[in-house]
Amino acid sequence: MKIKIVGLTKKFPGDPKKGIKDTVAVDSLNLDINDGELVGLLGPSGCGKSTTLYMVSGLKDPTDGQIYFDDEDVTFLAPEKRGIGLVFQNYALYPHMTVYKNISFPLTSLKLKENKKSFKAERARRLIEILSNPEEIADVITAVEKDNKIKKNDAVFALCSHYHISKLLAEQIYSYKLHISSDPKKDATKYVSAALIDVEEEKRELVQQHLILADNNDILKEDGTPIEVTRKLTKDEIDALVRDAARLVQIEQYLDRKPAELSGGQQQRVAIARALVKKPRVLLLDEPLSNLDARLRIQTREEIRKIQQKTNITTIFVTHDQEEAMSICDKILVMKDGKAMQEGNPQEVYRNPSNLFVAKFLGTPPINVFNGYIKDGGLYIGNERISDVNSSLDDKNVYVAIRPEGFIIDNKNGVFSLDCKEIVTMGRDLSLICSSPFLVSGKIKIIIDSDLKPEIGKIKFSIRPTKLYVFDGETEERITI
Ligand code: ATP
Question: What is the pLDDT of residues 390-410, one digit of tens each?
Answer without folding.
Answer: 888 899 999 999 999 999 999
